[in-house]
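Please fill in the sequence for the structure shown.

STRUCTURE ENCODING:
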């Protein structure tokens, strides 16, 4: 069982930055692939970024490439999402997600169905 708690959301003007955090309680955090998803009002949940259990492999949605960076510290059982050059279209509830992975380098697809554990979300609002 894994519990995930996000923090760091808030309101920012376009062009600004925010850093989201996700604290995990898991006996073997190193065995979990992690990801960030987001959901804007009236829209489905969208994959934003993913990272392998060992942290060596990452992947991003085209809409955030070059602006967002996912990272993790396995000793601290913490996942981050650094968001720069924010746009109004980045406004959404952001969720972290986790799923057991077979190897340290495994990188699951950015698909909602690929992740079993979810946090409650943190709101990000970007104004123009």
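FILLED IN BY: designer on duty
SEQUENCE:
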């Amino acid at each position: 069982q894994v519990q995930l708690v996000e923090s760091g959301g808030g309101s920012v003007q376009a062009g600004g930055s925010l850093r989201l955090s996700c604290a995990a309680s898991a006996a073997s955090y190193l065995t979990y692939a992690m990801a960030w998803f987001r959901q804007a009002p009236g829209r489905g949940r969208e994959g934003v970024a993913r990272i392998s259990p060992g942290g060596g492999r990452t992947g991003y949605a085209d809409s955030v490439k070059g602006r967002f960076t996912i990272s993790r510290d396995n000793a601290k059982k913490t996942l981050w999402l650094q968001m720069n050059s924010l746009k109004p279209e980045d406004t959404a509830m952001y969720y972290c997600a986790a799923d057991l992975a077979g190897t340290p380098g495994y990188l699951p697809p950015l698909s909602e169905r690929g992740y079993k554990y979810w946090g409650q979300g943190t709101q990000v609002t970007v104004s123009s």
